[in-house]
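Wait, can you check?
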Amino acid sequence: MKLEICNLSGYKIYPSRGRTFVSADSKTYRFLSSKTESLFHQNKKARLLAWTPIYRRLQRKGVSEEVAKKRTRRNVKFNRAVVGASLEQINARRNEKSDIRSAARAEAVAKAKEQRKGEAAKRKAARANAPDAGKFSKQQARGSASKVSRSGR
């Protein structure tokens, strides 16, 4: 006894059952019923029809065995040295007390302020020694440059 398979639904077709359709390019299609044949001619896709085994397989319906839960990998933490500091220095910083750390921060801020004051004084001295050539606005400077370029045409 030879069993055929329905081209749309995938169900078995027993002998003396079903319908056969031969297309213009002489391919034969076997269908379980007029329902499956009609759906085939309407160009319906079996994977979108909820009653077909193909749909049920794709949507994982009726699977009796539960697959074992996939184990997630735990991230392992590493302490690595950074370019400017070794691992020992990093651990020493981490373990020192907060009041020592805050005192060091205040000292660094004071040092930075001193450095800025020195730079500001140097800039003032440089301005005082500069000639009076820079006493016109940017717009005037731009205007004189454009006049020069126009006359050069």
About this structure: Residues 98-129 form the longest helix (32 residues). The longest strand covers residues 19-22.
